[in-house]
Amino acid sequence: MNDVRVIEVKENILADNDKEAQILRDKLKSKKTFLMNLMSSPGSGKTTTLLRTVEQLKDKIKIGIMEADIDSDVDTKTMAGAGVKSIQLHTGGMCHLDAAMTEQGLNELNYDGLDLVVLENVGNLICPAEFDTGAAKNVMILSVPEGHDKPLKYPLMFSKVDALIISKIDVAPYFDFDMDKLREYVLKLNKNVKIFPISAKTGEGVEEWCQWLLDEVNAHNK
Prior knowledge:
By secondary structure, this protein is an alpha/beta fold. The chain is built from 9 helices and 7 strands; from the N terminus they run αβαβαβαβαβααβαβα. Helix content is 41%, strand content 18%. α2 crosses α9 (206-220). One of its GO terms (molecular function) is GTPase activity.
């Protein structure tokens, strides 16, 4: 009877990616470019939130956007209309970006001189949480319609982020969404996370979120 060998491929892939991510992070630090990895599920208001962020910050810092999608350029056209440098990254069916793919995108963007580059990652709450992109900060958007129980279902994602944006708070009265419960669930997983409830539609909370991001960019790029 032949012996059966089990090879932990995923573990090796993640270890190699972590090394590449740290090299990229050090390189971006030396070039004074802050990379933010923005993650969420589809329909969370990610692109709209990003538009409001760009509106607030584009006169203060130089911004570039990398829009990742399986096969679409809709979001890139939207961001280009906002007056910032942007490119589309097609993942060829993959549900995440890793460090090598991110660096390839950065090179295509030609990020020299950019203070902030936002990587709008592929829309889901599983795969992107597993792969380090080399970002200085990881940020997630959770929309009110998705429910306050998402940290219980996707704990890895919530444990990995530095900031959590709660979007679409203007529709909270129409949904069974408990902000206190959400905070409780999230802080059990990640006691250091910053939480920003916002409405891109009304503008509520956007200034506080943008000020945090601006402070992080300036501190990183000193």
